[in-house]
Amino acid sequence: MMGAGKSAVGPALAQRLECDFVDSDAEIEREAGCSIAELFAAEGEPCFRERERAAIEKLAGRPAVVALGGGAPAQPGAGEWLAATGCVVYLRARPETLLERVGDDAARPLLAVSEGESRLARLRELLERRRSAYESARWVVDTDDLAVEQVVESVAQSLGEGS
């Protein structure tokens, strides 16, 4: 989920595990030549999800730490396919923590709200809709009150790479 810590934890974990780090959203942006927000505006969410699925297929099974966009695991069949090709870890955080971390970032198209709507309510809705997909991960690490190094340590221990 956006704000859970993937972009901060991923590179640090990859360094710890001595492997590459890949961010699926960054790969999509690189291939498309524009930002995720621009893709959403130009093509809509269904087309973005097709690009996301292609990126996941390209990255699956690669010896790397891969940070997936928040909606990727919730796509039909993605959870099973991801579990079959790698170790899936869900970095879980409360909606309040997520909102604090993402702030007013306009580059988050799924957090765009109309006047009178709440970004916190939108985050809660997204989390609830994706909950079963997220919680199907092999490991779940709560990130709310942890520093990046603590999350890396927890994930590394889960993966059997303890210090």
What can you see in these coordinates?
With 163 residues, the protein is mainly alpha-helical. It has a single domain, classed as P-loop containing nucleotide triphosphate hydrolases (Rossmann fold), CATH 3.40.50.300. The chain is built from eight helices and four strands. The strands form two sheets. Strands 1-2 form a two-stranded parallel ribbon. A two-stranded parallel ribbon has the order 3-4. Helix 6 (95-102) crosses helix 7 (119-135). The longest helix has 17 residues, at 119-135. The chain is globular and about 45 Å long.
What is the residue-mean pLDDT, rounded to a whole number? 88
Unreliable stretches: none
- Relative helix content: 40-55%
> CATH topology, which one?
Rossmann fold
The helix tally amounts to: 8
Q: Strand order across the biggest sheet? A: 1-2
The number of distinct structural domains comes to: 1
Number of strands: 4
Largest sheet: 2 strands, parallel
| N-to-C CA distance | 27 Å
Class from helix and strand fractions: mainly alpha
Assembly state (oligomeric): single chain
The H-level CATH homologous superfamily, spelled out, is: P-loop containing nucleotide triphosphate hydrolases
CATH class: Alpha Beta
Overall CATH architecture = 3-Layer(aba) Sandwich
* Helix-strand topology string: HEHHHEHEHHEH
Strand content: 5-15%
Shape estimate:
globular
